[in-house]
Amino acid sequence: MIQALRGMRDIAGREARIFQMIEEKARYYFELYGYEEIKIPIMEMTELFSRGIGDMSDIVQKEMYTFEDRKGRSITLRPEGTAGVVRYYIEKGLDKNDPVQKLFYTGPMFRYERPQKGRFRQFYQFGVEAFGIESYLLDADTLDMLVAYFTAIGIKNPVVKLNNIGCSQCRPAYNGALKAYLHKHADELCPDCRQRIETNPLRVLDCKNEKCRAVTQLSPDIGDFLCDSCRKYDEELRDILTRRSIPFERDRFLVRGLDYYVRTVFEIHGGEGAQNALMGGGRYDGLVEALGGRPVPGFGFAIGVDRLVALLSDTGLFEKNLSDLFIAWSLTDKVPLLEKSSALRKCGLSVEFLADERSLKNQLKYAHKKGYRFVVLLGDDEAYSEEIHLKKMDSGDEVYVSPIDIREHLI
Ligand SMILES: [Zn+2]
Ligand SMILES: [Zn+2]
Protein backbone atom coordinates (compact mmCIF):
# COMPACT_ATOMS: atom_id res chain seq x y z
CA MET A 1 0.00 0.00 0.00
CA ILE A 2 1.32 3.44 -0.88
CA GLN A 3 1.08 5.83 2.06
CA ALA A 4 1.36 9.59 2.39
CA LEU A 5 4.88 10.91 3.02
CA ARG A 6 5.92 11.25 6.64
CA GLY A 7 4.76 14.59 8.02
CA MET A 8 2.28 15.10 5.15
CA ARG A 9 -1.40 14.63 5.74
CA ASP A 10 -4.78 14.74 4.05
CA ILE A 11 -7.37 17.22 5.19
CA ALA A 12 -10.89 15.90 4.68
CA GLY A 13 -14.42 15.86 6.07
CA ARG A 14 -14.98 17.93 9.18
CA GLU A 15 -11.40 19.22 9.18
CA ALA A 16 -11.79 20.37 5.60
CA ARG A 17 -15.00 22.22 6.52
CA ILE A 18 -13.22 24.02 9.36
CA PHE A 19 -10.32 24.79 7.06
CA GLN A 20 -12.68 26.26 4.49
CA MET A 21 -14.47 28.42 7.06
CA ILE A 22 -11.16 29.73 8.43
CA GLU A 23 -9.94 30.57 4.96
CA GLU A 24 -13.17 32.19 3.78
CA LYS A 25 -13.29 34.41 6.84
CA ALA A 26 -9.61 35.33 6.45
CA ARG A 27 -10.20 36.44 2.88
CA TYR A 28 -13.25 38.35 3.96
CA TYR A 29 -11.43 40.25 6.72
CA PHE A 30 -8.24 40.85 4.74
CA GLU A 31 -10.28 42.36 1.89
CA LEU A 32 -12.37 44.35 4.35
CA TYR A 33 -9.15 46.04 5.48
CA GLY A 34 -7.91 46.79 1.98
CA TYR A 35 -5.63 43.83 1.24
CA GLU A 36 -5.54 42.14 -2.16
CA GLU A 37 -4.66 38.56 -2.87
CA ILE A 38 -1.41 37.51 -4.49
CA LYS A 39 -0.68 33.95 -5.55
CA ILE A 40 3.03 33.28 -5.34
CA PRO A 41 4.90 30.21 -6.62
CA ILE A 42 5.51 27.25 -4.36
CA MET A 43 9.13 26.98 -5.56
CA GLU A 44 11.77 29.69 -5.60
CA MET A 45 15.52 29.94 -6.04
CA THR A 46 17.15 28.74 -2.80
CA GLU A 47 19.08 31.98 -2.50
CA LEU A 48 15.86 33.94 -1.97
CA PHE A 49 15.22 32.14 1.31
CA SER A 50 18.83 32.06 2.50
CA ARG A 51 19.00 35.83 2.06
CA GLY A 52 15.43 36.60 3.12
CA ILE A 53 15.21 34.38 6.18
CA GLY A 54 18.89 34.41 7.07
CA ASP A 55 21.67 31.87 6.47
CA MET A 56 22.02 31.24 10.18
CA SER A 57 18.34 30.55 10.90
CA ASP A 58 17.15 27.05 11.78
CA ILE A 59 14.83 27.14 8.78
CA VAL A 60 17.63 27.66 6.27
CA GLN A 61 20.18 25.50 8.10
CA LYS A 62 18.07 22.43 8.73
CA GLU A 63 14.50 22.61 7.55
CA MET A 64 14.28 23.39 3.85
CA TYR A 65 13.23 21.05 1.06
CA THR A 66 16.02 21.91 -1.33
CA PHE A 67 16.91 20.08 -4.53
CA GLU A 68 18.54 20.61 -7.89
CA ASP A 69 16.36 20.96 -10.94
CA ARG A 70 17.28 19.42 -14.29
CA LYS A 71 19.66 22.26 -15.07
CA GLY A 72 21.48 21.94 -11.75
CA ARG A 73 19.97 25.07 -10.15
CA SER A 74 19.25 24.99 -6.45
CA ILE A 75 15.49 25.19 -5.88
CA THR A 76 13.57 25.24 -2.60
CA LEU A 77 9.96 24.56 -1.70
CA ARG A 78 8.84 27.69 0.10
CA PRO A 79 9.18 27.39 3.89
CA GLU A 80 7.24 30.65 4.37
CA GLY A 81 5.50 33.27 2.26
CA THR A 82 7.10 36.62 2.94
CA ALA A 83 10.28 36.13 0.89
CA GLY A 84 8.28 35.29 -2.24
CA VAL A 85 6.03 38.33 -1.86
CA VAL A 86 9.05 40.60 -1.40
CA ARG A 87 10.72 39.02 -4.44
CA TYR A 88 7.58 39.85 -6.48
CA TYR A 89 7.53 43.40 -5.11
CA ILE A 90 11.11 44.07 -6.15
CA GLU A 91 10.95 42.15 -9.44
CA LYS A 92 7.98 44.28 -10.59
CA GLY A 93 9.78 47.49 -9.58
CA LEU A 94 7.02 48.39 -7.12
CA ASP A 95 9.59 49.57 -4.59
CA LYS A 96 10.47 52.32 -7.08
CA ASN A 97 7.19 53.03 -8.85
CA ASP A 98 4.26 52.09 -6.68
CA PRO A 99 5.54 51.43 -3.19
CA VAL A 100 2.28 51.28 -1.24
CA GLN A 101 1.01 47.71 -1.61
CA LYS A 102 -1.20 45.70 0.72
CA LEU A 103 -1.11 42.02 -0.17
CA PHE A 104 -2.20 38.71 1.29
CA TYR A 105 -1.45 35.10 0.38
CA THR A 106 -2.70 31.70 1.46
CA GLY A 107 -1.27 28.28 0.81
CA PRO A 108 0.95 25.37 1.75
CA MET A 109 4.50 25.82 3.06
CA PHE A 110 7.13 23.10 3.50
CA ARG A 111 9.65 22.46 6.26
CA TYR A 112 11.62 19.33 6.91
CA GLU A 113 11.02 19.25 10.67
CA ARG A 114 10.51 16.31 12.96
CA PRO A 115 6.76 15.65 12.68
CA GLN A 116 4.91 15.86 15.98
CA LYS A 117 1.41 16.56 17.20
CA GLY A 118 0.06 19.53 15.29
CA ARG A 119 3.27 20.02 13.30
CA PHE A 120 3.47 18.89 9.70
CA ARG A 121 6.05 19.07 6.95
CA GLN A 122 3.43 20.48 4.63
CA PHE A 123 1.54 23.09 6.61
CA TYR A 124 -0.70 26.00 5.71
CA GLN A 125 -0.36 29.69 6.31
CA PHE A 126 -2.20 32.90 5.58
CA GLY A 127 -0.07 35.96 5.54
CA VAL A 128 -0.33 39.66 4.98
CA GLU A 129 2.38 42.08 3.84
CA ALA A 130 1.93 45.86 3.77
CA PHE A 131 4.67 47.83 2.03
CA GLY A 132 5.50 51.50 1.80
CA ILE A 133 3.96 52.82 5.01
CA GLU A 134 5.79 53.56 8.24
CA SER A 135 3.20 54.42 10.84
CA TYR A 136 1.92 53.06 14.12
CA LEU A 137 -1.58 53.54 12.63
CA LEU A 138 -0.97 50.74 10.13
CA ASP A 139 0.22 48.48 12.95
CA ALA A 140 -2.89 49.36 14.97
CA ASP A 141 -5.27 48.83 12.05
CA THR A 142 -3.72 45.42 11.37
CA LEU A 143 -4.05 44.35 15.01
CA ASP A 144 -7.65 45.55 14.97
CA MET A 145 -8.26 43.34 11.90
CA LEU A 146 -6.67 40.30 13.56
CA VAL A 147 -8.64 40.56 16.77
CA ALA A 148 -11.85 40.91 14.73
CA TYR A 149 -10.88 37.91 12.62
CA PHE A 150 -10.03 35.60 15.51
CA THR A 151 -13.20 36.57 17.30
CA ALA A 152 -15.24 35.87 14.15
CA ILE A 153 -13.89 32.35 13.75
CA GLY A 154 -14.68 31.51 17.36
CA ILE A 155 -11.39 31.95 19.22
CA LYS A 156 -12.16 33.06 22.76
CA ASN A 157 -10.45 36.12 24.23
CA PRO A 158 -7.73 36.90 21.69
CA VAL A 159 -4.97 39.00 23.27
CA VAL A 160 -2.14 40.84 21.50
CA LYS A 161 1.35 40.41 22.95
CA LEU A 162 3.43 43.32 21.91
CA ASN A 163 7.03 44.47 22.03
CA ASN A 164 9.14 47.18 20.46
CA ILE A 165 12.61 45.92 19.60
CA GLY A 166 14.07 49.27 18.56
CA CYS A 167 15.69 50.32 15.31
CA SER A 168 19.16 50.57 13.75
CA GLN A 169 19.77 53.68 15.88
CA CYS A 170 19.05 52.21 19.28
CA ARG A 171 19.34 48.44 19.00
CA PRO A 172 23.17 48.24 18.77
CA ALA A 173 23.51 49.70 22.28
CA TYR A 174 20.92 47.24 23.56
CA ASN A 175 22.60 44.31 21.80
CA GLY A 176 25.88 45.33 23.44
CA ALA A 177 24.34 45.41 26.91
CA LEU A 178 22.53 42.12 26.33
CA LYS A 179 25.68 40.38 25.06
CA ALA A 180 27.68 41.57 28.06
CA TYR A 181 24.99 40.24 30.40
CA LEU A 182 24.71 36.90 28.56
CA HIS A 183 28.47 36.37 28.52
CA LYS A 184 28.45 36.62 32.30
CA HIS A 185 25.86 33.81 32.42
CA ALA A 186 27.09 31.79 29.44
CA ASP A 187 27.55 28.53 31.34
CA GLU A 188 23.90 28.62 32.49
CA LEU A 189 22.60 28.75 28.89
CA CYS A 190 21.69 25.92 26.54
CA PRO A 191 24.29 25.12 23.82
CA ASP A 192 22.21 26.85 21.12
CA CYS A 193 21.97 30.04 23.15
CA ARG A 194 25.69 30.02 23.95
CA GLN A 195 26.25 30.28 20.20
CA ARG A 196 23.55 32.91 19.82
CA ILE A 197 25.28 35.32 22.21
CA GLU A 198 27.49 36.44 19.35
CA THR A 199 25.39 35.59 16.28
CA ASN A 200 21.90 36.59 17.42
CA PRO A 201 21.61 37.60 21.09
CA LEU A 202 17.96 38.69 20.82
CA ARG A 203 16.97 35.11 20.08
CA VAL A 204 18.19 34.04 23.53
CA LEU A 205 15.23 36.01 24.92
CA ASP A 206 12.65 33.71 23.36
CA CYS A 207 14.43 30.40 23.95
CA LYS A 208 11.97 27.92 25.48
CA ASN A 209 14.65 26.21 27.61
CA GLU A 210 13.87 26.79 31.29
CA LYS A 211 17.45 27.52 32.30
CA CYS A 212 17.72 30.14 29.57
CA ARG A 213 14.42 31.66 30.70
CA ALA A 214 15.71 31.90 34.23
CA VAL A 215 18.82 33.73 33.00
CA THR A 216 16.93 36.20 30.83
CA GLN A 217 14.50 37.23 33.59
CA LEU A 218 17.09 39.69 34.90
CA SER A 219 18.56 40.68 31.53
CA PRO A 220 18.56 44.32 30.36
CA ASP A 221 15.16 45.51 29.06
CA ILE A 222 15.00 46.87 25.50
CA GLY A 223 12.44 49.38 26.77
CA ASP A 224 15.22 51.22 28.60
CA PHE A 225 17.28 51.59 25.41
CA LEU A 226 14.74 52.87 22.87
CA CYS A 227 15.63 56.06 21.02
CA ASP A 228 13.18 58.97 21.10
CA SER A 229 11.47 58.11 17.83
CA CYS A 230 11.05 54.41 18.76
CA ARG A 231 9.72 55.41 22.16
CA LYS A 232 7.21 57.82 20.59
CA TYR A 233 6.13 55.19 18.07
CA ASP A 234 5.59 52.68 20.86
CA GLU A 235 3.63 55.11 23.02
CA GLU A 236 1.37 56.17 20.16
CA LEU A 237 0.63 52.57 19.21
CA ARG A 238 -0.17 51.56 22.78
CA ASP A 239 -2.28 54.65 23.31
CA ILE A 240 -4.46 54.00 20.28
CA LEU A 241 -4.84 50.29 21.14
CA THR A 242 -5.97 51.26 24.63
CA ARG A 243 -8.47 53.79 23.32
CA ARG A 244 -9.82 51.32 20.75
CA SER A 245 -10.16 48.69 23.51
CA ILE A 246 -7.94 46.21 21.69
CA PRO A 247 -6.65 43.88 24.43
CA PHE A 248 -2.84 43.81 24.55
CA GLU A 249 0.01 43.32 26.94
CA ARG A 250 3.69 44.10 26.66
CA ASP A 251 6.04 41.10 26.50
CA ARG A 252 9.66 42.18 26.53
CA PHE A 253 10.84 38.64 25.70
CA LEU A 254 8.99 38.68 22.40
CA VAL A 255 11.50 39.17 19.56
CA ARG A 256 11.99 38.36 15.92
CA GLY A 257 15.40 36.91 15.30
CA LEU A 258 16.22 38.72 12.09
CA ASP A 259 18.12 41.97 11.80
CA TYR A 260 15.65 43.63 9.49
CA TYR A 261 12.83 43.53 12.04
CA VAL A 262 12.37 46.90 13.75
CA ARG A 263 10.05 48.35 16.32
CA THR A 264 6.72 46.52 16.52
CA VAL A 265 6.76 42.76 16.93
CA PHE A 266 3.67 40.94 18.11
CA GLU A 267 1.89 37.66 18.63
CA ILE A 268 -1.76 36.92 19.24
CA HIS A 269 -2.72 34.40 21.90
CA GLY A 270 -6.13 33.02 22.72
CA GLY A 271 -8.41 30.00 22.96
CA GLU A 272 -7.42 26.81 24.75
CA GLY A 273 -3.72 26.61 25.55
CA ALA A 274 -3.44 30.39 25.49
CA GLN A 275 0.27 30.22 26.25
CA ASN A 276 0.83 29.23 22.63
CA ALA A 277 0.78 31.91 19.97
CA LEU A 278 -1.90 31.72 17.29
CA MET A 279 0.31 33.76 15.00
CA GLY A 280 3.12 36.27 14.90
CA GLY A 281 4.32 39.22 12.91
CA GLY A 282 5.99 42.55 12.97
CA ARG A 283 7.58 45.46 11.20
CA TYR A 284 10.45 44.66 8.84
CA ASP A 285 11.65 47.95 7.45
CA GLY A 286 14.94 46.47 6.24
CA LEU A 287 13.77 43.36 4.40
CA VAL A 288 13.10 44.81 0.94
CA GLU A 289 16.57 46.35 0.95
CA ALA A 290 18.13 43.10 2.19
CA LEU A 291 16.71 41.36 -0.88
CA GLY A 292 18.04 43.96 -3.29
CA GLY A 293 15.27 46.58 -3.41
CA ARG A 294 15.00 50.10 -2.14
CA PRO A 295 14.70 50.74 1.59
CA VAL A 296 10.91 50.48 1.87
CA PRO A 297 9.10 49.97 5.17
CA GLY A 298 7.08 46.80 5.59
CA PHE A 299 4.72 45.25 8.06
CA GLY A 300 3.32 41.74 8.01
CA PHE A 301 2.32 38.57 9.73
CA ALA A 302 1.62 34.90 9.11
CA ILE A 303 -1.06 32.71 10.66
CA GLY A 304 -0.51 28.96 11.02
CA VAL A 305 -3.75 27.40 9.85
CA ASP A 306 -3.18 23.82 11.06
CA ARG A 307 -3.16 24.85 14.69
CA LEU A 308 -6.33 26.91 14.28
CA VAL A 309 -8.07 23.93 12.70
CA ALA A 310 -7.01 21.74 15.62
CA LEU A 311 -8.19 24.33 18.16
CA LEU A 312 -11.59 24.69 16.52
CA SER A 313 -12.03 20.94 16.05
CA ASP A 314 -12.76 20.65 19.75
CA THR A 315 -15.64 23.10 19.71
CA GLY A 316 -18.40 20.73 18.52
CA LEU A 317 -19.39 23.01 15.65
CA PHE A 318 -18.92 22.23 11.97
CA GLU A 319 -21.22 19.28 11.51
CA LYS A 320 -23.41 19.60 8.44
CA ASN A 321 -25.07 22.98 8.06
CA LEU A 322 -28.80 23.51 8.56
CA SER A 323 -29.10 24.20 4.84
CA ASP A 324 -27.64 20.79 3.92
CA LEU A 325 -30.37 18.29 3.08
CA PHE A 326 -30.27 14.59 2.40
CA ILE A 327 -33.01 12.94 0.31
CA ALA A 328 -33.85 9.39 1.34
CA TRP A 329 -35.86 7.92 -1.55
CA SER A 330 -37.71 4.89 -2.79
CA LEU A 331 -39.33 5.48 -6.16
CA THR A 332 -40.73 3.55 -9.11
CA ASP A 333 -40.30 6.55 -11.42
CA LYS A 334 -36.93 8.22 -10.73
CA VAL A 335 -37.61 11.56 -12.45
CA PRO A 336 -39.20 13.20 -9.35
CA LEU A 337 -35.94 12.59 -7.46
CA LEU A 338 -34.10 14.93 -9.81
CA GLU A 339 -37.03 17.36 -9.93
CA LYS A 340 -37.24 17.70 -6.14
CA SER A 341 -33.47 18.02 -5.82
CA SER A 342 -33.42 20.72 -8.43
CA ALA A 343 -36.31 22.63 -6.79
CA LEU A 344 -34.53 22.60 -3.43
CA ARG A 345 -31.17 23.59 -4.91
CA LYS A 346 -32.90 26.55 -6.61
CA CYS A 347 -33.84 27.68 -3.09
CA GLY A 348 -30.13 27.71 -2.22
CA LEU A 349 -30.12 24.46 -0.28
CA SER A 350 -27.40 21.89 -0.68
CA VAL A 351 -28.86 18.49 -1.58
CA GLU A 352 -27.32 15.05 -1.54
CA PHE A 353 -28.88 11.65 -2.28
CA LEU A 354 -27.46 8.21 -2.90
CA ALA A 355 -27.88 7.38 -6.56
CA ASP A 356 -27.76 3.63 -6.12
CA GLU A 357 -30.85 1.89 -4.76
CA ARG A 358 -30.57 1.04 -1.07
CA SER A 359 -33.06 0.37 1.67
CA LEU A 360 -34.48 3.45 3.42
CA LYS A 361 -32.93 2.20 6.63
CA ASN A 362 -29.47 2.18 5.08
CA GLN A 363 -29.97 5.61 3.57
CA LEU A 364 -30.96 7.06 6.96
CA LYS A 365 -27.96 5.41 8.58
CA TYR A 366 -25.74 7.12 6.02
CA ALA A 367 -27.42 10.52 6.65
CA HIS A 368 -26.91 10.10 10.37
CA LYS A 369 -23.25 9.19 9.98
CA LYS A 370 -22.65 12.23 7.80
CA GLY A 371 -24.19 14.55 10.38
CA TYR A 372 -27.26 15.66 8.43
CA ARG A 373 -29.74 17.40 10.65
CA PHE A 374 -32.67 17.21 8.18
CA VAL A 375 -33.73 14.55 5.73
CA VAL A 376 -36.32 14.71 2.95
CA LEU A 377 -38.35 11.52 2.57
CA LEU A 378 -39.41 10.80 -1.01
CA GLY A 379 -41.56 7.78 -1.83
CA ASP A 380 -44.13 7.09 -4.54
CA ASP A 381 -46.77 8.87 -2.41
CA GLU A 382 -44.77 12.11 -2.35
CA ALA A 383 -43.39 11.89 -5.91
CA TYR A 384 -45.90 14.16 -7.60
CA SER A 385 -46.87 16.34 -4.67
CA GLU A 386 -45.82 19.99 -4.51
CA GLU A 387 -44.85 19.56 -0.91
CA ILE A 388 -41.69 18.27 0.69
CA HIS A 389 -41.80 15.61 3.39
CA LEU A 390 -39.20 16.83 5.88
CA LYS A 391 -37.88 14.88 8.86
CA LYS A 392 -35.77 16.31 11.64
CA MET A 393 -33.13 13.77 12.59
CA ASP A 394 -32.71 14.41 16.31
CA SER A 395 -36.38 14.71 17.31
CA GLY A 396 -37.90 12.56 14.56
CA ASP A 397 -40.53 15.29 13.91
CA GLU A 398 -41.99 15.27 10.39
CA VAL A 399 -43.74 18.04 8.42
CA TYR A 400 -45.01 18.66 4.89
CA VAL A 401 -43.90 22.02 3.50
CA SER A 402 -43.54 23.75 0.14
CA PRO A 403 -39.94 24.26 -1.06
CA ILE A 404 -40.34 28.06 -0.80
CA ASP A 405 -41.15 27.86 2.92
CA ILE A 406 -38.72 25.11 3.80
CA ARG A 407 -36.07 27.38 5.31
CA GLU A 408 -38.42 28.42 8.09
CA HIS A 409 -38.42 24.80 9.23
CA LEU A 410 -34.67 24.27 9.11
CA ILE A 411 -33.91 25.34 12.66
ZN1 LIG B 1 15.11 53.42 17.71
ZN1 LIG C 1 18.48 28.53 25.17
Question: What order do the helices and strands come in, and which of them pair?
Answer:
Layout: H1 13-32, E1 36-37, E2 43-45, H2 46-53, H3 58-63, E3 66-68, E4 74-77, H4 82-91, H5 94-97, E5 101-110, E6 122-131, H6 136-152, E7 159-164, H7 171-184, H8 191-199, H9 210-216, H10 228-243, E8 248-250, E9 262-269, E10 277-283, H11 287-290, E11 298-304, H12 305-313, E12 324-330, H13 335-346, E13 350-353, H14 360-370, E14 374-379, E15 388-392, E16 398-401, H15 406-409
Parallel strand pairs: 1-5, 7-8, 12-13, 12-14
Antiparallel strand pairs: 2-4, 3-4, 5-6, 6-11, 7-9, 9-10, 10-11, 14-15, 15-16
Helix pairs in contact: 1-6, 1-12, 2-4, 6-10
One zinc ion is lined by residues 189-190, 192-193, 207, 209, 212.
Task: Give a description of the structure.
- The chain has 411 residues and is an alpha+beta fold.
- The protein folds into two domains: 13-170 and 226-313, Bira Bifunctional Protein, Domain 2 (BirA Bifunctional Protein, domain 2), CATH 3.30.930; 324-409, Anticodon-binding domain (Rossmann fold, 3-Layer(aba) Sandwich).
- The protein is built from 15 helices and 16 strands.
- The chain has helices at residues 13-32, 46-53, 58-63, 82-91, 94-97, 136-152, 171-184, 191-199, 210-216, 228-243, 287-290, 305-313, 335-346, 360-370, 406-409, and strands at residues 36-37, 43-45, 66-68, 74-77, 101-110, 122-131, 159-164, 248-250, 262-269, 277-283, 298-304, 324-330, 350-353, 374-379, 388-392, 398-401.
- The chain has an eight-stranded mixed beta sheet with strand order 1-5-6-11-10-9-7-8. A five-stranded mixed beta sheet has the order 13-12-14-15-16, sandwiched between helices.
- Helix 13 (335-346) links the parallel strand 12 and strand 13.
- Helix 1 (13-32) packs antiparallel against helix 6 (136-152), helix 2 (46-53) packs across helix 4 and helix 6 runs parallel beside helix 10.
- The two termini are 44 Å apart.
- The model has no long low-confidence stretch (mean pLDDT 91).
- The chain binds zinc ion (ZN) (2 copies).
- The site of one zinc ion has 8 residues, from helix 10.
